[in-house]
C-alpha cells in the first residue's frame, strides 16, 4: 500500500508516518488532529480514495492519499461500507506505525462520507456504531464535518 503526497510523491505507510512525525515536530506546541477518510466515485470501475490528513489546528495541514479501483459498485450501502472499511483498515495500520513513535497515544478521527441530507442518512446509526464499536477510541465525523472524506479524498476520486 503506497500513499501519495502531492509534494513528496509515493511513500510507504511507515515513510508517511515518519513524514507526519517530522511535520508535528516542526511545531511541537501546536494542537494536531490525525484524520482518515475515504470517498469513492463510480464509473466503469469504482475509484476509492483514502486520505490521511495531519491537521495542525488553525495553521495548515499535510495530507496523503491512496487510490484503489474495484469493479463497479452500484449499491450505495455496499459503497459506504467499503469506504468505511478502507478507512478503518488504514487507521489500524496507521496506529500500528504510530505506536513506534512518541505520538503513540494520538487520537484519530474517522471521517465518513454520510450525512443527515440525502440517501445516506439511513446509514448513520449503523456506520457510526460500527466505527465506535471497534474499541480503538476513534472519533467519528459525518458530513458536514467529515472533510477528510468529503473534501480531501473526494478531490482524488475524479
Keywords for this entry:
158 residues; alpha/beta; 5-stranded mixed sheet; 4 helices; globular
Largest sheet: 5 strands, mixed
- Name the strands of the widest sheet in spatial order: 5-4-3-6-7
Structural class: alpha/beta
Number of helices: 4
Which series of helices and strands comes N to C? EEHEEEHEHEH
Helix content: 25-40%
Uncertain runs with pLDDT below 50, 5 residues or more?
none
User: In one word, what is the shape?
Assistant: globular
Proportion of beta-strand residues: 25-35%
Radius of gyration: 15 Å
User: What's the rounded overall pLDDT mean?
Assistant: 95
- Terminal CA distance reads 20 Å
Quaternary structure classification: single chain
Q: How many strand units?
A: 7
Give an overview of the whole structure.
The chain has 158 residues and is an alpha/beta fold. The chain is 35% helix and 35% strand. It contains four helices and seven strands, in the order E-E-H-E-E-E-H-E-H-E-H. The protein has helices spanning 13-26, 76-98, 124-132, 147-155; strands spanning 2-5, 9-12, 32-42, 45-56, 61-71, 108-115, 139-143. The strands form two sheets. It has a five-stranded mixed β-sheet with strand order 5-4-3-6-7, with helices on both faces. The protein has a two-stranded antiparallel sheet with strand order 1-2. The protein is globular and about 45 Å long.
In short:
With 158 residues, the chain is an alpha/beta fold.
Give the SSE map.
Elements: E1 2-5, E2 9-12, H1 13-26, E3 32-42, E4 45-56, E5 61-71, H2 76-98, E6 108-115, H3 124-132, E7 139-143, H4 147-155
Parallel strand pairs: 3-6, 6-7
Antiparallel strand pairs: 1-2, 3-4, 4-5
Amino acid at each position: 500500500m503506497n500513499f501519495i503526497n502531492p509534494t513528496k510523491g509515493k511513500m510507504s505507510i511507515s515513510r508517511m508516518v515518519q513524514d507526519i512525525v517530522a511535520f508535528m515536530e516542526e511545531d511541537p506546541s501546536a494542537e494536531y488532529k490525525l484524520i482518515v477518510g475515504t470517498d469513492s466515485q463510480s464509473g466503469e470501475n469504482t475509484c476509492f480514495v483514502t486520505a490521511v490528513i495531519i491537521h495542525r489546528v488553525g495553521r495548515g495541514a499535510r495530507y496523503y492519499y491512496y487510490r484503489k479501483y474495484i469493479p463497479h459498485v452500484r449499491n450505495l450501502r455496499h459503497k459506504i461500507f467499503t469506504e468505511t472499511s478502507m478507512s478503518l483498515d488504514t487507521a489500524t495500520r496507521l496506529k500500528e506505525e504510530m505506536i513506534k513513535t512518541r505520538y503513540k497515544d494520538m487520537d484519530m478521527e474517522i471521517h465518513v462520507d454520510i450525512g443527515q441530507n440525502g440517501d445516506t442518512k439511513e446509514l448513520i446509526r449503523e456506520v457510526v456504531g460500527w466505527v465506535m464499536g471497534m474499541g480503538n477510541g476513534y472519533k467519528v465525523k459525518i458530513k458536514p464535518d467529515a472533510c477528510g472524506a468529503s473534501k480531501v479524498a473526494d478531490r482524488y476520486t475524479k
